[in-house]
Amino acid sequence: MKLTFIAACFNRRELTVRAAQQVLAAADLAGVSSALIVYDDGSTDGTSESLQLLDPRIEVLAGDGTAFWAKSMAAAEEHALSQQVMPDYIVWINDDVDFDDDFVQRIVAAAQLNPGAVVVGAAREPGTQDISYSGMVRGGVHPLNFRRIEPAVDDVLPVETFNGNLVLVPVDVARRLGGLDGQFSHGLADIDYGLRCGRAGVSVLLAPRTYGECARNAMPALTTVSNDWKRFTSAKGGGNFGSLRHILRKSNPVIWPAVISATYAKWIVKRLAQRPAVSRQS
Questions:
Q1: Inside any domain, residue 220
Q2: pLDDT tens-digit map of 81-97
Q3: Are 65 and 158 members of one domain?
Q4: What pTM value is reported for the model?
Q5: What is the pLDDT of residues 110-156, one digit of tens each?
Q6: Between the chain's N and C termini, which has fewer beta carbons within 10 Å?
């Protein structure tokens, strides 16, 4: 069996090098052939150089800092699928996950019991068993409202979509779906991929237990309404118009303008009800 891991990185050399070492060592422990393709989106901290010296199985693709996560991962996957010798699975990883030593062995075992399925591995908050990233199911009226699922102990669970921190995709599925959608600015590409699987009749399963530690991104501190709005609608923000429009046009082609309007209205109402914390001098 051969696995090709793909990752995106930007100026997180220590985390990226650690992740590269962990995934290749875990693949060796599992007795599978492996390669790692990293799309470095313009790092200036020596990430690419460190990776290239680390292991000959690592291939680094160079970006210019404008790709962000979605386009970086799409480019890495496209490169993986262009190889003459195809892997059995494309494995998405995030470089900020501190992977368990046996994570490859366990997630491959889950995939082998469920051929043809996309298999998702959950992550836990550092030092705890609380789930930080996982598979998801719908959690409300809004079409992009999802809730994370707690993995089972011994069995897989069906999910509708997922966070893209650890995802094992059969190469036939990757080729059939056409890969990650690089038209997203940063986020939502993983959510979109899971929804595309559902529309294509591909099972998405959450593997048992967790596969590493990864802290959830902290909510940024409130500043001014204007600055917070700019952050919310920026390339990496959850309210980026281009990304919202892109995913909603696929899932809600008729009512997507109304959904975006409601999304922004809800954000404004919620934000106006909040006040930044103000330090008091004694």
A1: no
A2: 999 889 999 999 999 99
A3: yes
A4: 0.93
A5: 999 999 999 999 999 999 999 999 999 998 888 899 999 999 999 99
A6: C
